Amino acid sequence: MIRNFKPHAAHVKKSGSDRCFYMICYSVVVLCLLIVLLPMMYVLAASFSSAAAVNAGKVWLWPVDFSLKGYETVLQYKSVWIGYKNTIIYTLCGTLINVAVTMLCAYPLSRKELGGRTFFTFLFSFTMLFSGGLIPTYILIRDLRMINTVWAMLLPGAMSVYNMIIARVFIESSIPGDLLEASRLDGASDAQYFFHVVLPLSKAVIAVIALYYAVGHWNSFFNAFIYLNDKVLYPLQLFLRDILVQNNIDSSDITDPEMAAQIQGLAAQLKYPIIVISTLPMVCLYPFVQKHFNKGVMVGSLKG
Amino acid sequence: MPAFRKEKDMKLSKAIKKNLKNWQLYLFLLIPLAYIVVFCYIPMLGAQIAFRDYSVKDGIWGSKWVGLKNIMKFLDSPIFDSLMVNTLSLSLYTLAVSTPLAIIFALILNSLPSARFRKTAQTIVNIPHFISIVVLVGMMMQVFHSRIGLYGITTSFFTGKYPADLFASPSAFRHMYVWSGVWQHFGWNSIIYTAALSGVSLDLHEAAQIDGASRFQRILHVDLPAIRPTITITLILSMGNVMTVGFEKAFLMQNGLNSSASEIISTYVYKIGLNSAIPNFSYSTAIGLFNSVISLILVTLVNRIARRLSETSLW
Fold it and tell me: N or C: which end of chain B has fewer CB within 10 A?
């Protein structure tokens, strides 16, 4: 009986006060869920409502006067698709570079016998505490002639030391040292061991850090804002800033002239579908990676 | 003497040989090392322009030294006080609200009996974490719109008239900034505590339960002490970060009407350095450097205090 003990199991009789306590806990959590969901439901509802209903302030949590006009308008809005394409490119290439550099750093640092390990670890960790700042970095990027190029979006953040530490701790703690001995006896080199043993066994942590990096790229706005000035290279977030925050809707971007005439009336309606379309991919990605979280995040965040 | 030297040489060559065997590891490390040197350490060297009078013609290494002139200029400038107050109040307000809420949420969630409910709830509260700051600010502008937003509709429903525009009010800025952050991240911030709680030994719960402790008492006396090291570490990290308030959200929420509350150090650094008619690289760098140095001192101090008080520290 003791072996089957669970902290929540019912075999120890629940007292009245415990039952009351659980009731309170459930209500608090349900309240939190509501607070999280309400704004998102409002945006979703407004995105499926007609412009008139939204502008009249009729939409609360359910679509009023159901309409797909907003989504049709977004389909016509060229810059959103330029941004979408660029963001997908930056996210895919960026994440690939990130994960490669991170693992190439985490693996050697996880090997205890590596000479200078403490020194290298310090060299990397120190950058988490101190940085040169905005302007020196800007001057560097300018001198490297990376302003207004794709590289400014991919290289300056090629590795996050925090994620590297998560990966390192994962390799240290969940890949047994015996494996290294065994593969050495089989004549494998360090590189072979890395590619054939470490990487396949690190799938969980790779999934987690890839999610972190991908979300970072998808949502990043600052680097593009500082380093890019050619609209053809803009990621989605910069166009979103124009539309959502600056209220700039460029009617010359709409291919259909009839729609361009209506654009001012559609301004409010355009925003909601854009929020939905731009946010959905990352939100959908998350549940697939969530199952790896126990292995990945916790190890790193506790021992980091 | 020569024998000693020989022995030392042999030791040295042995060490080199041992490390040479790991040459592939060093080859791997070369790439991240190159990255960190180029993109982190070179800008650190570049930060010396804070003490020079930077001109594009002379470059970082050739511009004239001016000593502490730029730092002094910042300390004496009339905007210094309000920048510090705005930056510190945003970060301390966030710290005071978001950490306790994340801890309480983790404790409550962890105490629920149904595993499936716990998991679903956690998935849902994490969703806002994946929303970008641009979209978040855009959403806030819609949701808090004084006429057509959720806020305007609800207020006018109860009071009969439309409320004032929140984005135009400096006093509302801080609350909106902090609570939107709480909305977005409390679930995510609680993950680390939930993880620590899942590691609490069942024996402890069992023993407490046999002693007649209620679930609430077990939270206070079993769960809470178990996550204390985690709390210490997150507090060290956030105390060290009180001077670094991110640029993006304050910048995006900023407008002419609320700038008396929303102008913080990072937005000012941007404004002086990159967004003015006569950009002043040296002055902007000096403000940034001042900020980074204070942050570094803070983390080191807090870490030292934490190590002395609770034997839990970052390093």
Answer: N
CATH number, domain of A229, equals 1.10.3720.10
Q: What is the mean pLDDT of residues A232-241?
A: 93
Comparing CB atoms, the residue among A7, A244, A286 nearest residue B205 is: A7
Residues of chain A positioned with their CB less than 8 A from the CB of B25: 107-108, 111, 114, 190
Nearest to B247 among A56, A222, A282 (CB): A222
The candidate with the shortest Cα–Cα distance to A238, out of B128, B263, B140, B252, is B252
Task: Quote the CA–CA distance of A278 and B263 in Å, as a whole number.
Answer: 28
- Shortest distance between the Cα of B80 and any Cα of chain A, in A, equals 18
Range of the domain at B11: 2-67
Give the lowest-confidence range in B116-120, B142-146, B173-177: B142-146
Q: Is residue B6 scored above 70 in pLDDT? A: no
pLDDT tens-digit readout, A162-200: 899 989 988 988 888 888 889 888 888 889 999 999 999
The predicted pLDDT at position A250 comes to: 65
Q: Say if A146 falls within a structural domain.
A: yes
List chain A residues with CB under 8 Å of B42.
132, 136, 140
Strand partners, B52: B65
pTM: 0.87
Which residues in chain A have Cβ-Cβ distances shorter than 8 Å to B195?
294, 297-298, 301-302
* Residue A45 shares a structural domain with residue A192: no
Rounded to the nearest angstrom, the gap between the alpha carbon of residue B161 and the centroid of all alpha carbons in its chain is 39
Is the pLDDT at B179 greater than 90? The verdict is: yes
Between CA B253 and CA B180 the distance in angstroms is: 11
**Which of A135, A248, A303 is the mutation pick for testing B, counting most B CBs within 10 A?**
A135
Clarify whether residues B243 and B304 are in a common domain: yes
Of A105, A133, A244, the CB nearest to B135: A244
Spatial contact of B229 and B48, defined as CB atoms under 8 Å apart: no
Alpha-carbon span A274 to A81, nearest angstrom: 11
A–B: how many Cβ contacts below 8 A? 284
The residue among B67 and A52 whose pLDDT is bigger is B67
